[in-house]
Amino acid sequence: MATTGPQPQAPSQAYAQFPGAYGQPFQTYSQYGAAQPQANQQIIRAEPTETKGWKITRSALHGAGIVVAILCIALSFSFKGTTTEVFTAWYSSPAALIAFVWSLSELIVRAVQKQKAGIHPGAHVGMCLLIWLAASFVAGIHSTFAAISHYGDRSSNCDYPYDSSTQDYQYYNCTLPFNGRFGQWIALTVFSWLLWLIYFILFIGSCIDTHKRNQAKRQRVVIVNPGSFWGQVKDGSNSPRALRSLKLLHLAFPCRIGIQPSLRTQCPRSFTAKRARSLRG
């Protein structure tokens, strides 16, 4: 009876379990069709939107600015005479006139564009700054004259020649301050301060709108290049993250991962057998 020794077993193929991972890990995308770049790509930047409340508030402030500017101009030219107070009242009209023209232009532009957009907020910053600075200067001068006339020496509005018989000064031809229109002067002072307040609020709002617009322009738009495509591997996994992980592991540990067929001979046989048993189990 012929006895035969143990038959040599064929070496187990540790790489047959996962043909997709070990057969051809990096397949060119030419056989699957390269992804065509999108033609005529346009970058659309989202313009900062204005809230409805701020639109209504800004339009109301411009309307109030027009009314207050008209009142300031009318009160300024209502004073007649050649006194210092009268000339000072006339000096307040340029600031009110600029405010009237600017607010009227803003409302006209918004009416033409159906409240979608008005004048550029950067222009509002410059013009509102000019108006509230001029209005604050004029209102301060008016307040100073009103305080001096009300609490100061009213003899400045009189003629007081020296009388030799009494050896004293006598007051003659005394007139009331501001030609008897002190109430109008107070009204002009109040409206000047109100004009300052309106355009100071508009200045702050325009600064905020300009900041939002500048930030929207500085936003980075990232366009992902669709040209790179590894294709679908044989095991059905086409996750780009998984493919990148396999590539990094293959470059770092080609023997231990065992995904490159040309490096099988460089791996120890004990490791290959252990790897095969772990894959079967």
From TrEMBL:
Q: Which residues cross the membrane?
A: 60-79, 91-109, 129-151, 185-208
Membrane is among the record's keywords: yes
Keyword set includes Transmembrane: yes
Query: Which top-rank group of organisms is this from?
Result: Eukaryota
Keywords attached to this entry: Membrane, Transmembrane, Transmembrane helix
Identify this protein by name. MARVEL domain-containing protein
Identify the species of origin: Bionectria ochroleuca (Gliocladium roseum)
The upper taxonomy is: Eukaryota, Fungi, Dikarya, Ascomycota, Pezizomycotina
